[in-house]
Amino acid sequence: MTTTQQTPTGAAPAAAEARSRRGTALAHRLFVVRELGILAALAVLIGVTLIANPRFLSGQNLRDLMLSAAILVVLAAGQTMVIITRNVDLSVGSILGLSAYATGTLLVDRPGTPVLVALLAGTAVGAVCGLVNGAVVAVAKVPSLVVTLGMLYAIRGLDSLWASSSDRLQVNAADLPSGFKSFGGARVLGVPVLFLIAVAVVLVIGWYLRSYRSGRELYGIGSAPEAARLSGIPVGRRVLMAFVVNGALAGLAGVLYAARFQTLDTTAGTGLELNVVAAAVVGGVAIAGGTGSAWGAALGALLLTTIGTALPQLGLNPFWRDAAVGALIIAAIVLDRTLTLRLAARLRGRNLRGS
Amino acid sequence: MAVDTAPAPSAPARAGGRRLTLPSGSVISTFLVLFLVIASFSVENFASSRNAGFLLLDVVVIALIALPLTLIVVTGEIDLSVASVVGLCSAVMGRLWFAGLPLELIIPLCLLLGAVLGAVNGLLVTKVGLPSLAVTIGSLALYRGLAFVVLGDQAVADFPRAWTTWAIGSIGGTGIPNAVLPLLVLIAVTAVLLHATPIGRSLYAMGNSEDAARFSGIDVARTKLWLFVAAGVVSALGGVFWTLRYGSARADNAAGLELQVIAAILLGGVSIFGGSGGLLGVLAGALLLASVRNALQLVNVPSDVLNIVTGVLLIVAVVAPQVTAWARTRAARQRPPG
Predict the structure, then answer these.
(1) CATH number at residue A63
(2) Does A317 contact chain B (CB < 8 Å)?
(3) Could you say which DSSP state residue B157 is in?
(4) Is A151 within the bounds of a domain?
């Protein structure tokens, strides 16, 4: 539309529009390539591990892998929303811990609580934490890195203060109602329910970011905050919303954590924030904002989890896991940088040829 | 109105600008002094030389690593991998000592390793052009992972007594730890570098506008590369000291310390976006965090509350300047014209 106004002749706008559409298509293809790349890496990793140990993907192993991945996948999908707006939330590990402990306490005190209510309660706890994060970031306009670092300490402190003052330092599996425990191990067609919940979360967030106006605006905010503001996007409200959703998902992940591990102390989820950010970055969500997708981040989470399980199967010392994860993060951002540079060069080349 | 008052606000604004450079450290220092005075009177044993010694011993590594990291944050970059460098150097130190090398050889090797680790970060940031936050989240995991590869979950603890007693000993029984002297030298060097040389001013210039700095002839990439190398070397030194102080080389030494160092830097008034802040504030911030924790421990406040206090202090430290700036502009707007 805007190209029509800029070019005087009648034939040029169509060409310009086609050119810009080709450019967009190219950019799109690149991101698809990026996600296929992680999928390929995942396939290679699984393939190599299968050769070393043919039983790697046997029923129980696969289910364990899905269960371990579920929590990280949910967190990575939420973190994607925040990172896309050029922010970051380092407090998710602490939110998960608080939500897991809160859910555990609720279930022990009221064993009749339905699982759905427990899920909602944990999610609500997370949403409140996210609201505090988002409000401080959006209203006081201070860097999210600092605010959520502070919240990382504060929420964890609150969690352990609650535990020590209530004389229940940890929630034991034996005290949890059996309904909740069977939820943790439940399967539909052989697939763990926890994993299905994670997949549902990724689909909803991914679809929202791709197809909804406010979802697209998050990308605009991350690419150029000032331009987004000038074009009328309510930046503060959108960023606040991203933090609330991310907090809510961290709360949900806390309930999943409680269902999976069932014995909960106040250290649940400590240090998880770096894994989450790592999963997002490996999955193509740029830390500088504006690019990436929830499915990419979910694939990143799946890849990181698989590395952890595959190393021992390959006969490698599990101590290599962190080193491999670190190398993967650096490789992923180097790859992203190369792709971006190439994309920019290609687009520039096209424009030169076109004009 | 804007035309009438234009010359008037510009003069106070300049004075305000100059005033602003001082408070970046002096506000937090005032808080520190107030807190120390109140705590010495109201908290039993807080002012004892024994307790002061423990407190300083806890601050040494944090303050040490905060020196190069402050310079990095001033240029608008960040290095989250410092604590992992501490861990990796500690692990390597343990492995080499276990292999029978003398400490006189091991320590230079560890510092060299730190330089290499810092250079890897620096090259990825300056040559490849990657965001330092993402790079150092990666190397945080990578270096810590390598530490576990080197030493596993074992601990090497049979370091010579002469070295370990020096690390926890104090100067002539004053309670001031031995390590404070070399730390003071490094503080002096960093302070002069940052606040009294063209290099220091160029760091602020980079933090305010990298393009402007480059156009004015500053070699941004080379300076940043050297800062990352310095952070690596100093963190390695921290790793050596940490190992001797606790008498134990472990792969998980100083895990999570990066958050405490960054908390001290930000509490000290250095902007995470770069371009402002000073060393005085950072050191006061490190001391304040450590003394608040120490005092609360002495009055038997559970450690959970310490975390809440640390977190809230950090948030208040960044929100407070925003609130005062907002109040100031509001007051300026409400002042009648002319």
Answers:
(1) 1.10.3470
(2) yes
(3) -
(4) yes
